[in-house]
Write a structure and sequence with these properties.
single chain, 230 residues, 14-stranded antiparallel beta sheet, 2 helices
Amino acid sequence: MKYRFLWLACLCAGGNICAQQAEETLPYAVNWPSGLGLGEAVVTAQKVKAPDGAERWRFELKVDASVPGFTVSDQFRAVATADYCSVEFERDLKHGKRANRERITFDQEKRSATRETLEGGGKSEFSIPACAKDPLTFLFFVRRELKQGRLPAPQPVFFGASYAVRMESGGAQRLRSGDGMVEADRVIVTFKGPKADQKLEALFVRDAARTPALVRLPLAVGTLSVELAR
């Protein structure tokens, strides 16, 4: 479930280092199929400078949700280059009484990455392709590609293990925004890996920023949704 929820929530992200504002905050409501609130998610993006003066993006996703007797409080943080190549990805998961912290450090020049379980855990190294991406960085990259009229080619995305991600256009769809309606790009996302084999639907408003407005994830109990809080 945590892998599905990450993809559902972190699709609420994106930008272009040339066109996007230096800082962005996007709040979202997480809802049950019935429409009842399950929790909230907040995505932030900030343009920063590395010690060598290079431009970097710092992305963050916070998710807080609860059902009677069980709470979820997750944080995902990523640092990426101006070209959306991952530098570091960290996740801090708290599901009920269980907690886990993990970091992936990417060495893009050597085409390798190190995965480390924090607070006394082990380390492992693995190979990566050119300009490898974590989920947050990948989804910001998606938004840039949409602004240029295209979708990314199928590729691996690293959330601990490697997940094969494929995106397909679902055409245009009208979406309610405040008191009016707006045009949105409908995108079907399939991701498959060791602990997930899932498909979801994302809607990106056809504005200058390609604002992610709605994500729907089919589950056995119905369709869970994450909707931009306007």
